[in-house]
Amino acid sequence: MPDAEQPIRRSVWRPAAPRPARPGLAGKRETDVVVIGGGIVGTTTAVLLRRAGHEVTLLEATTVGSGTTGGSTGKVTALHEQVYAKLEEKFDASAARLYAQANQAGVEQVAALANEMKPAGARCRFERRMACTYAGDEDRVDELRQEAAAARRAGLPVDDASTPDLPFPVAAAASLPDQGQLDPFAYCEGLADLLEREGGRVYENSRVVDVETSDDGCVCHLANDAALTCRHVVVATLLPFLDRGGYFARTYPSRSYGIAVTLKKPAPAAMTINLGSPTRSTRAGARPDQLIVVGEHHKTGQDPHTERRYAALEAWTREWFPVRSVDFRWSAQDFMPADSAPYIGHLALGGDRLYTATGFSKWGLAAGAAAAVMLTDLVGGRRNPWLELFDATRTDVLPSAKKALTENLDVAKRFVGDRLSAIAAPNASDLKPGEGAIAELDGDKLAVYRDDAGALHACSPVCTHLGCYVQWNPAETTWDCPCHGSRFTTDGEVVQGPAVKPLERKAASR
């Protein structure tokens, strides 16, 4: 693609001509286990549950793989920046060992399932690669050495005696061999195909808005009034849309940005990420000359200049690599837990029939596959030793209380402050084509967008999750909630939960 052309605004993994969507669920039906969410956690869990003998139905609000998994880098690794040193500090060495065991098992689980997809699913392109965390300057070398040592104590064969082949100075590095990379969108599609071939059912465009539980079972209620009765429900929706357990208060939403570029020579083979900020995560793409660069993370809804994030990634990439063209740009979201470990298991306050997995800190591929193993064991009544660390009902908040308090104070600040700032909102008539803002329209403060044809689109600015004011995201042309990460289209439809109801539409004109 020539430099003069604009990058395509979608994940590099999303095909230009996607497969036709599967039918949505209609009417009233029954099954044994319902898995809600078609990302890596949901699709892997559904396959493993089916192989364990359960009748399984997978429900996806849009299309399989189209959420955070399909917007990830596609790195499948147990090496996660500085997590092992943090786990030793917040818990103990045994916690770090459990984390390492689970994530390395997740790598091997992905590799095994990817191998099963061949030849029909070969386009997920699972490849073994080295994962590398590096310090760009001497100030971070001690931190990196400490993380490498903690990872080795956790049982991982991490090498910190060599540095990766990168076109810029690297002060030190920690490398883990035999990790993996793949096309995450194609991988999820391949898992959905496996599930269907083995007797499971997959429904797309089937948004669940509530789950009723009783001693006799569960009923999943969909936005189109369809309902599915079952014995167990796995909520694998990035963040549980059910507010039981309050995971929205134990995590915070973070967006990251990605670009895919064509180089004038082959991209470095290793999967790399730096310590410190701004984050620069790289990997080779589908072609030898394709490089994927991800970074620029920030709290969702708390940056009014998101276009600058792409510009910063492109500037860094052009500074260090011989770029022929910038071909794709996209963003994705994840939820960051207060104590560095995801929440996996029984959904807190949800009883014995509801399960979840959330808070993967942008490392959800290996950890998501490990979560699927844990959830399958739980549904089948089997003990899983990894849950000692990841238990979603854990209440020992002392190691993370300060972090959780800080994030919830930030939510409270946004709840009040955004309403106060809306008092001085601009007039909707001042918006130019392509602009959005909390603006005054016919005497009301609304979320208003003017499209390229000049027409206004107006919605209530109040997020339907817990009532925070949404904020305009110019890079993605969406309304994003700065409190808990829900996202909406310019017409108020839900793009991403935990909200399940759209913003209220308001009448608008030119």
Question: How would you describe what is shown here?
Answer:
The chain is globular, with a radius of gyration of 22 Å. Strand 2, helix 1 (40-51) and strand 3 form a beta-alpha-beta unit. The chain is built from 10 helices and 26 strands. It is α+β, with helices and mostly antiparallel strands and 510 residues long. The relative contact order is 0.15. The model is unreliable at 398-420 (pLDDT under 50). The strands form 5 sheets. An 8-stranded mixed beta sheet has the order 4-6-5-13-14-15-12-16. The protein has a 6-stranded mixed beta sheet with strand order 7-3-2-11-18-17, with helices on one face.
Present the secondary structure layout.
Layout: E1 28-30, E2 33-36, H1 40-51, E3 56-59, E4 75-76, H2 83-90, H3 93-116, E5 127-135, H4 141-153, E6 172-181, H5 184-197, E7 201-203, E8 208-214, E9 217-222, E10 227-230, E11 232-235, H6 247-250, E12 251-263, E13 271-274, E14 280-284, E15 290-299, H7 307-320, E16 323-337, E17 343-346, E18 354-358, H8 364-379, H9 387-390, H10 401-421, E19 436-441, E20 444-450, E21 456-459, E22 471-473, E23 478-480, E24 487-488, E25 494-496, E26 505-506
Parallel strand pairs: 1-10, 2-3, 2-11, 3-7, 5-13, 11-18
Antiparallel strand pairs: 4-6, 5-6, 8-9, 9-10, 12-15, 12-16, 13-14, 14-15, 17-18, 19-20, 20-21, 21-26, 22-23, 23-24, 24-25
Helix pairs in contact: 1-5, 1-8, 2-3, 2-4, 3-8
